[in-house]
Specification:
- By secondary structure, the chain is mainly alpha-helical.
- The chain has one domain.
- Helix content is about 75%, strand content about 5%.
- It has a two-stranded antiparallel sheet with strand order 1-2.
- The protein is globular and about 50 Å long.
Amino acid sequence: MKKEHQKTQIVGSFNNKQLLYVKYFTAILIDLLVLNLFDEYWDNVVISSFSISLLVAILLQILLKFTIKIEHRVADYFNAKPGKFMKFMRYLSAWAILFISKLIILEVINQAFGNEVQFKGAWHGVLAFIVVVMVMLIAELIASKINKKLGKIG
């Protein structure tokens, strides 16, 4: 008996707005999952309710995407200039923007939610926050890679 291979079937087409919606909807759900798992299993992350964690996940997506846009604009500026110093400045500026933005995002969350959301531990919770954000980004990357692989099957 021969093995039958299922071919990927396109059942419709999606416009760019629909694809963007699915991308951000999925990212928010991943962030929500990560936030709530850290809340449940790590004492350094405390979120008062599921509703608050959903709002935090939405706010984080907005702020993280804004940060990445800024980082890309600065990178484009340095990439357009020749030389090793400009390459060094590109990496230094990327690191600085990505690190400092986490401090700003943490403060925005603190201002928006007060004691409803707490990141505790080293450096007044900054380390816990960075760990949570890094896990979110890794989870989003894994989901994206799985999605791309599924599109290539068949």
